[in-house]
Amino acid sequence: MFFGHVLKFFFSGPKSSRPRFYRGGKHNSLYRCPVPETASAAKARKNAEPLAADREGPHLEVRSLQKNFGDTKVLTDVNMSIGRGHIAVIIGGSGAGKTTLLRILIGLERPSSGSVEISGQDIANLSDRELNVMRRKFGMVFQYSALLDSMNVMDNVAFPMREHTKLSEKEIKAQVTEKLHSLGLDNVEKRFPSQLSGGMRKRVALARALMLEPEIIMYDEPTSGLDPVTSRMVDDLIVDTRKKFGVTSVIISHDMVGALQIADEIYLLSKGSIVASGSPQELIHGDNELLHKFLQSSGVTAMPGAAEKLAKGD
Q: Taking a C-beta distance cutoff of 8 angstroms, is the pair 219, 252 a contact?
């Protein structure tokens, strides 16, 4: 259970209880409403404008990354360069090494060799204390949202603020309400995860990930378990979050339709190596056999020109 291990680092657990994780319910509709821009969102957007325009240096760069478990090579010579404010999607089949790569990117695992640089700083060589500070630059949205089912929405979203800040309870609640409102969620603070639709749970999880104002949001299979309509709405949410908060987004996924629609760059991981990378248009017109198998199995190539239209956002 990947998110169970990651929560240990992103949100330390309550001292007096052992909350369980809510893995989903029957509803998959996405709660949506017109969302006015809040003061903090407007500030973040203004701050993000020069960052989004700065394409000079990568925000996240992986160089010659290798990870071994004993004699088994899990990742070999992985190289990635993700621009500030970009949306990068890492796709690949089961056992390709996606989860291991994600764990290394957020500092949960250390590479056997190579580097992972955030704004030029190699996190692979940081001490545990320095790594804990660096993790504040990351937000994490887990595959099944990883909401604590014994807590209501307010307590779920406030969790990282209570653990990592000295703000008063009044200040925390005000920030949680504002963040939920900015994501189109009003009057849900007292609801529990079992009372939320699939799309609403994704928004609550995203609100929690944004509470410490991270620079980079990591999404682990954000559309897994959702119907196609809701999946596309979640894709829109990822794009809107980039626009509002100026974050860089890294998505682990097998959803080719979503990848083609929202990615600035796509990395295809196979047997621990990046075998193809580039913009959606570049990959569509490339000759990588595995990539085209992904397109075919996703149904994208069933209609002539469908892949090109998706990549253009049509």
A: yes
Residues 204 and 196: beta-carbon distance below 8 Å: yes
The contacts of residue 210 (CB under 8 Å, 6+ apart) are 139, 179, 217, 241, 245, 247
Number of domains in the chain: 1
The CATH number linked to 299 is: 3.40.50.300
Q: Give the pLDDT confidence of 118-157 residue by residue, as tens digits.
A: 999 999 888 888 888 888 889 988 877 788 889 999 999 9
Interatomic CA distance for residues 290 and 301, integer angstroms: 14
3-state class (DSSP) for residue 164: helix
Distance CA 201, CA 31 (A): 9
Domain extent for 99:
2-312
Model pLDDT for residues 208-238, shown as the tens digit of each residue: 999 988 999 999 988 887 788 888 888 998 9
Burial group, residue 20, by CB count within 10 angstroms (0-12, 13-18, 19+): exposed
DSSP string, 217-232: EEEESTTTT--HHHHH
DSSP-derived pairing of the beta strands 121-122 and 138-141: unpaired
Q: Which two tokens stand for residue 118?
A: 């955030």
Spatial contact of 26 and 230, defined as CB atoms under 8 Å apart? no
Residue of 226, 211, 218 lying closest to 25 (CA atoms): 226
CB count in 10 Å sphere of residue 216: 20
Across 26-93, the runs of DSSP E, i.e. the strands, are: 58-69, 72-83, 87-91
| Alpha-carbon span 300 to 257, nearest angstrom | 7
